[in-house]
């Protein structure tokens, strides 16, 4: 029986470098949202009543701009403000309302600051998570700012707000 010589060369695995443009948009978008959650959590610690809400809204608006860039959706500041206000002011009134109450509670001497510091960052982060998830879903389905309907995402926003609380709690670990 003849034996056949087999040359065995070491197998070299060359992994291509992963570049953001090669990553699915939803993964990139989730990273964008996580970064902005950190910003709004930090803004939640602002001790001045209503100033925190203003900064949080500005951070969320910038997040929408970043998400629009990921999905190549046209963004204007006025349109972004409009959809953000319609989502957080209409559908999300209960969760955002809690944030407003917590922000106003900061004006109560002694206990207000402690209450605000304990709760506002979590509410801000959860709200940002929910806004981000709503727009990721909307953009993934081919939506734009022009065809966004906040009434259609009310239940989804609520679900994502609850998940956002868990996300923020995990960030604290």
Please count the beta strands (DSSP E, at least 2 residues each). Answer: 0
Low-confidence stretches: 6-22
Mean pLDDT: 80
What can be said about the biggest beta sheet? none
In short:
This protein has 173 residues and is mostly helical. The protein is 67% helix and 0% strand.
Description:
The protein has 173 residues and is mainly alpha-helical. It has one domain. It contains 6 helices and no strands. Helix 5 crosses helix 6. It is globular, with a radius of gyration of 22 Å. The relative contact order is 0.16. About 10% of the residues have low confidence.
Features:
173 residues, single chain, 6 helices, 0% strand, mainly alpha, globular
Write the layout of secondary structure elements.
Blueprint: H1 25-43, H2 51-71, H3 77-91, H4 93-105, H5 111-140, H6 154-171
Helix pairs in contact: 1-2, 1-5, 2-3, 2-5, 3-4, 4-5, 5-6
